[in-house]
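Morning run. Coffee first, then this:
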Amino acid sequence: MPLACLVIAAPHSGAGKTTVSAVLAAAFTSMGLAVQPYKVGPDYIDPTHLTAAAGRTARTLDGFFLEEPELLEVFRRGALGADLALIEGVMGLFDGADAVGRVASTAQVAKLLRAPVVLVVDAAAMAGSVAALARGFRDHDPEVWLAGVIANRVGGERHAALLAEALEAAGIPWLGYLPRGAGLELPERHLGLVLAGEARLERDRLVRAARTLDLEGLLRLARAASPLPAPPHRLPTQRRAPRARIGIARDAAFGFYYPEVLEVLEQLGAELVPFSPLTDPEPPPGVGALWLGGGYPERFARELSANRGMRAAIRHFKGPIYAECGGLMYLSEALVTPEGAFPMVGLVPGAATMQARPVLGYRAVEALADSPLARRGWRLKGHEFHYSTRPPTPRPAWRQVGGTVVEGYTDGRVLASYVHLYLPAAPEAAERFVEAASGLGGGGNANP
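And here it is:
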């Protein structure tokens, strides 16, 4: 029997995909089902809410990062032991890296998974028009199975009845609604919703909200998903014996990591040892490399700067260091926020300065020099999303493929960049970093 599978999409961002996905995850879990959540597109924040609602770590499915075999393998590995796969889409159903949604869209992932799509519509200001909207999405791409509609922010039972009648007249299944003012909104900040560790919806409230949804109908649709092929892929299949210890920054300032990226490192023989640049006096003893991911260093600039012992220890660390986005900001000479300029580690020349407008988008990059993750000429994929800017460095790490823009910094041992790399798309880069951490090449040795 194929895995039950459901894709939650919308006409546009802000319609309520995360809310509906969290409600469904909590409701189906309360029914005794093991629900595996996924998020389409590059996102570290929404998955924390899906993880909290489902009780299983949310995974990323992205058609820009991954070719079909690897995407299906990431999906399959995440779903081990699950009864239902619940996939939250990104932006609008057909929004992606190209104009028609062929790449990096929810529609692309839905077609690869052969899964039914439920369209979440913000119906606060519409009634009969919901049918025209849904019909357009249903008919836009015949290869996408639009299986029904959930209406969000509905004014009451009469409003819901009008919406249901309009959809049923158009031959589009009505799968229920969430009422306006249900208390399911989450606070936001400059990178999107706040993390689930800071504010989350109570499971009981999520389950109660599902009373106006057709859970049995949704489950029947999910169980009608087609079985998936098992094509060959490049991801490691068996976990190697431990051969390297890598210190990984994990605290309130640093926490943006794709679980699939960390699992690839572990599959290749890495032991990941968490540490806190905010509160620990130094990195963990005996680690052969450091990994500093993204997060919110700007919110903790004063505290990070005040931990002089940690800054000095990282500055004098002898092994390879990889840093992305927030990690790059921390390795810079200073972090400049509206509150002032705060000294940071100082391994990367120049200061990171907060700004009002974001820089975001997919990135395909080519290595300009050897580093702990890549040889010169290697091509990797990732994305950027940040509100800080930095001056060019004398030793840029990457050039954007097909362009002249250079970015990041590397001296052969340290690699720091705004690009969040997705290593399941380049397992050879993960292999190189684990080897470097073990002292076998590509980045020097750890402190004795």
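Confidence is low (pLDDT under 50) at residues 442-448. Good start to the day.
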